């Protein structure tokens, strides 16, 4: 049994690399999922920011800001996730990569945490300090994990990149 050298391509990886990775949901050739994830990412961190400002100032204004940013993070995450799910299921070149599934699982957990964060704040059943702040920190950690795997898809696998024949 011989080992595959550095100059030989793994036949399984070669087949995966041959699969189409062009976006199924795009506007003017730009993948909608890549354009939409910025909103929930920003809003998850804005919720943590509102929590920290409330912790520092005890001003109830920041409680209201946290409810709005947590809700907006949840709903924009649902929208970005819906588009990402369509891409995952519809495009064989995306579906065949492990990083795609790791990204999807991390993103689903993130959306669930964002929904929990918003729901508990909206219902008033949570003490922001320390529980709401803790959930916001966990949401930011999950954002990093989902973003890490999304970045692997872009930078390591070239998913969502538009390369013209001039390049």
UniProtKB/TrEMBL annotation:
The chain crosses the membrane at residues 37-56, 68-91, 98-116, 128-148. InterPro entries: DUF2231_TM. It comes from Limoniibacter endophyticus. This is DUF2231 domain-containing protein. Keywords: Membrane, Transmembrane, Transmembrane helix. Residues 29-160 form the DUF2231 domain.
